[in-house]
Amino acid sequence: MIKNLVIVESPAKAKTIEGFLGKDFTVTSSYGHVRDLEKKNNGVEIDNGFNPLYIIPADKKAVVNDLKKLAKGAETVWLASDEDREGEAISWHLKEVLGLNAERTRRIVFHEITKPAITAAIENPRYIDTNLVESQQARRILDRLVGFEISPVLWRKVRPSLSAGRVQSVAVRLIVEREREIDSFTPESKFRIVGIFNFTDDDGKNYKFKAELNEKFDTEEEAYKFLEIAKDSSYKIDSVEKKPAKKTPAPPFTTSTLQQEASRKLRYGVSRTMLIAQRLYESGKITYMRTDSVNLSDLALGSSKNVIKSSFGDKYSKTRKYKTKSANAQEAHEAIRPTYFEHETIDGTPEEKALYNLIWKRAIASQMADAELEKTTAKISLSNSEYKFTASGEVIKFDGFLKVYIESTDEDDNTKDAEGLLPPLYNGALLTYDNIAATERFSRPPARYTEAALVKKLEEMGIGRPSTYAPTISTIQKRGYAEKEERIGKEREYKVLVLSGRNISGEVKTEITGAEKGKLYPTNIAMLVNDFLLKYFPKIMDFQFTAEVEKELDDIARGERNWVNMLESFYRPFHSTVEDTIENSERVKGERILGDDPKTGRQVSVRMARFGPVAQLTDINDEEAKPQFASLRTGQKLELLTLEEALELFELPRTLGNFEEKPVTVAIGRFGPYIKHDNKFTSLKKHFDPYTITLDEAIVEIKEKRIKDAEKLIKVFEENPDFQLQNGRWGPFLKVGKLNFKLPKGVNATEMTYEDCLKIVEESDKKVSSGKTKKAPAKKTAEKKTTKAPSAKKSTSKKTASGTKKTTKKK
DNA sequence: CAGTGAGCGAGCTTCCGCTTGACTT
């Protein structure tokens, strides 16, 4: 018989807490929420006071059954989910599902997983806060209604399977609007003047240092004119000013700042960061990783102080308490920190080590002293100009927290030079120039979002929660609204004028501009959906919408507002907008007519078709004539494509001629330009242009590919030519039709028999079918159908092996 | 994996926030 059953949300937390509590306590976990709205009828009886219809999701049934058993035999059940809206609701759902009565139930909360905090919580139990639960319920229902009423409108008016929601639609809006800012941006150039000066001190020692003019010039002529003046000028130090400055460490990590720094310093995407953090948490190395709090427990403050003092000395320690800035923070946990500050490094995979190291440094630095600097600014005057040069230098007098950690920023600032030490300049010192350069610099458009930068923006706006940042970013990519892409930049010329000695010389240099890596690009469908939603659902798309909802939810949580009332006043006008939109809005095509094809006179247009954006040639005079289509290439935008670009799309595929009595054609596919011959594909190497490659060149490529393919093939079995042993990227493997099979370790592929292969297929099939759950494959087939409707049909009827797999699993 | 771009109109898709595995390539 269990005396006390404590239920928390996470199993890792349960393990830790069990250690703090005595023998009389059994600690277990609910794995988050145990109930959710059913999907049927949106899970809400709207005309029955928004009565929610809750079910236990299939993947939670086992958990709930276990909890029921444990609870039945327990004297007292302690509901210890987080102290926020969601946590309160979890406790309430548990109470309902487990049939707990008030007498033997206690609700407790703690903000940190430390022994004193847990003991204090046990000593101060309270009741479930009904207002808070209702606030969560209102949040849940509102999100369901928004998502499940707008998404079907998109299916009808734009394309099936699309989605909309309070959080994701705003995230997409941010990406779309940023892209349009970039598209409409015209860079302006200015000439920046930087001089290298010579200074000789009293001992005759020579120094060179850099200084920048306090003026930039719009044109090359003006820059040249200035250099002419500079040539005949003498230079003198006008003033030297020294100012103390200090730098303060950043607070310890929250989910969002961890994601940002891991993105900048380690180049991890947000879901990768969270996956690694989860492993660190589960192995007890860090505190909880989904948090919006920057607070550290007293225990953490104490132990970090000890570590800092013993490693760096007393003067490096400074205890700091941080306050959360983000408006929406619920602060149910501590900041993300090492569980044991004494462990500067840990065992684990390289990425676990790297992320832990980042967390350790950031948390330690947050409890360290300010860095003290001295900034020096020297002004240099010209004898025959009003302009002045400025040189600045920075010296660290005391490094403080900089000893362990420097925060990065998103702006990769290459316009600013690293400020170092200046020579011992003094007022009135005379200088000569080594050279003075006028360099043309272009203004830059706003930067595209990285995943982490988008999370930061959403957090600032109070949209989304730590547990949903990474999933939201994945969702908008899965739905095809955004793509994380690497794009190569374009070359751009810029001018440099250099005054050296008595001579001014000019030069044209090139730089790469617009190169992007791992940034989020909106797709064409995202732009269409965004504009549609902005037009018909401006309220949902408003950046303030979530903030307003939050205010009302807070009122409900304080008992100052009725939750049904709140939903009524939101839903009624919202729902009539939905109906009105279904009734009155046009189907979204994104069609633009670009002009006429000069060769044939046919009309050139672009639009969104079923399989994506296309350009179209239409004979307007002949309705019978079939229009000709060409897909837009990656990166081309429906809303920006020009007539010339559209016409170029129709130049492919090109038929080059015949080889071995079969036509050779060139086109651009999903993986770039390719040659097609005899139903075989050969990717074009980079130095070939699909528009200019000749038949002879193509034939060479085809032959080369044949040799490579022959090397790839180890053996074809006579018994069944579908069975082939091939050399792949990861060594030999068995290919049967379209399916690939791994070979058992240590087998020599060349000696394998047909029977060996059959065995592999049979065994692997058995493994696959028995190991899988019922739901996963069903989901997979659905996905395949939507992305590739025509080919999927073909394969299900032909592929016997996979066909039987599917049917047996569905049962 | 790289042919489509539309028609007999089946049945499906979708939200946000809590939490972990169990999957494949």
Short description:
The protein is of the alpha+beta class and 811 residues long.
Features:
811 residues; alpha+beta; 6-stranded antiparallel β-barrel; 4-stranded parallel sheet; disordered C terminus; DNA-binding
Task: Strand order, main sheet: write it out.
Answer: 9-10-13-12-11-14
Cα-atom radius of gyration = 33 Å
- Give the tally of β-strands: 30
Low-confidence stretches: 765-811
Fraction of residues in helix: 25-40%
Give the biggest beta sheet.
6 strands, antiparallel, barrel
Secondary-structure content class: alpha+beta
| Overall 3D form | globular
Q: Separation of termini?
A: 40 Å
Mean pLDDT: 89
Tally the helices: what do you get? Answer: 23
Strand content: 25-35%
Topology:
Layout: E1 2-8, H1 11-20, E2 25-29, E3 36-37, E4 44-45, E5 51-52, E6 54-55, H2 61-72, E7 74-79, H3 85-98, E8 105-107, H4 115-123, H5 130-157, H6 168-183, E9 189-200, E10 206-213, H7 220-231, E11 235-247, H8 255-266, H9 270-282, H10 298-312, H11 350-365, E12 371-382, E13 385-398, E14 430-442, H12 451-460, H13 469-478, E15 482-487, E16 490-500, E17 503-513, E18 516-522, H14 524-536, H15 538-541, H16 545-557, H17 563-584, E19 592-596, E20 603-609, E21 612-618, E22 628-631, H18 643-649, E23 654-659, E24 662-669, E25 672-677, E26 680-683, H19 695-712, E27 713-716, E28 723-728, E29 731-736, E30 739-742, H20 754-771, H21 775-787, H22 789-798, H23 800-810
Parallel strand pairs: 1-2, 1-7, 7-8
Antiparallel strand pairs: 3-6, 4-5, 9-10, 9-14, 10-13, 11-12, 11-14, 12-13, 14-16, 15-18, 16-17, 19-20, 20-21, 21-22, 23-24, 24-25, 25-26, 27-28, 28-29, 29-30
Helix pairs in contact: 3-5, 5-16, 5-17, 6-13, 6-14, 8-11, 8-12, 9-11, 21-22
The protein binds one DNA strand of 25 nucleotides through strand 3, helix 3, helix 5, helix 13 and strand 21.
